[in-house]
Amino acid sequence: MNIMGLLVALLIGAVCGFLAGQIVKGHGFGLLGNIVVGIVGALVFGLLFGNFGLFGDTILNEIAGGTLGAVVLLLVIGLFKKAT
């Protein structure tokens, strides 16, 4: 992966994490945490469902899938936080 690909992945991860934090209120983790949640969420979504394919544009697919994965991840994290 080149430096431009890494920067795009970080930017998409930040957007996905931010959107997921807005959807699931009270579970934002700041910029760095949102990037991590967004990237992990995108990986989780990709492993579970593959390519989202709802939109024709690849970046919109990545943002939509990453956001959905990050929302699921935040909900799971919230369940574990409440259990402890």
UniProtKB/TrEMBL annotation:
It is a multi-pass membrane protein. GO terms for cellular component: plasma membrane. It is found in: Cell membrane. Pfam families: Transgly_assoc. The keyword Cell membrane applies. It comes from the Bacteria. Keywords: Cell membrane, Membrane, Transmembrane, Transmembrane helix. InterPro entries: Transgly_assoc. The keyword Membrane applies. The chain crosses the membrane at residues 31-52, 59-80. Its main location: membrane. Belongs to the UPF0410 family. This is GlsB/YeaQ/YmgE family stress response membrane protein.
